[in-house]
Known about the structure:
Layout: E1 4-13, E2 16-26, E3 31-36, H1 42-50, E4 57-62, E5 65-66, H2 72-80, E6 82-85, H3 97-108, H4 113-126, H5 142-154, E7 160-164, H6 172-189, E8 192-196, H7 200-206, E9 209-214, E10 217-222, H8 224-228, H9 233-240
Parallel strand pairs: 3-8, 3-9, 6-7, 7-8
Antiparallel strand pairs: 1-2, 1-4, 4-5, 9-10
Amino acid sequence: xxxxxxxxxxxxxxxxxxxxxxxxxxxxxxxxxxxxxxxxxxxxxxxxxxxxxxxxxxxxxxxxxxxxxxxxxxxxxxxxxxxxxxxxxxxxxxxxxxxxxxxxxxxxxxxxxxxxxxxxxxxxxxxxxxxxxxxxxxxxxxxxxxxxxxxxxxxxxxxxxxxxxxxxxxxxxxxxxxxxxxxxxxxxxxxxxxxxxxxxxxxxxxxxxxxxxxxxxxxxxxxxxxxxxxxxxxxxxxxxxxxxxxxxxxxxxxxxxxxxxxxxxxx
Length: 267
Ligand SMILES: Nc1ncnc2c1ncn2[C@@H]1O[C@H](COP(=O)(O)OP(=O)(O)OP(=O)(O)O)[C@@H](O)[C@H]1O
Ligand SMILES: [Mg+2]
């Protein structure tokens, strides 16, 4: 049974169709990377997986439990096993780095103060932020904030990690560090992860499989080597980072366009 199973998932906002019948199954211990242009619905997909957005149709199941059928308490239990790294670090501004990273540990575990402090230190060291415990988010650079968010996501040693562009705003070395942490967590703890990224180098480094979200659908869910040579024009254009091609073109008109109604006559 897949750890995360996205089944016929559709989500629109008013007339804007963002996800249209998306299917995606992530197996235990697998690292899935989702690529896609800006505004294609990657964050919406992650929010549906987390149960933060309700799909219009279809569903998401975690370990066989359908997220939208869970009670608040059950959803809370499921979320404890998920480390989510938001696109914007979403730190608590009034709290220090240490309090931010240790927040869930204090809330959801019976760890002593000393144990929390040790685990926070361990997580900060992992992301290259040794000794930053007492700083406030306002004193951090954008990249440091992202890494604090990352440390917070891994603090509870979650079974599932969801990363929304974890490396945006980081220099290439730190991008590589984050990629390595994702790989280490997978190897040491068997973590299952979904990572959204625009960084192709780290995508190919960390992915067991890669998907491209395009016009509401997953165009391919393939092993990196197969994805790289997929003849689909949209995939190849995305990989080349080329402005010319179908990627930016308007979608084709529907196969059976509705009869156009004559404009209303004005008096
Ligand atoms: N709560 C909402 N209400 C209305 N529209 C929304 C909402 N959330 C997202 N959208 C719209 O859905 C589309 C997809 O948004 P989403 O944030 O998932 O894009 P994305 O693929 O994550 O883009 P980026 O790479 O820029 O982060 C956008 O057009 C956005 O405006
Ligand atoms: Mg996004």
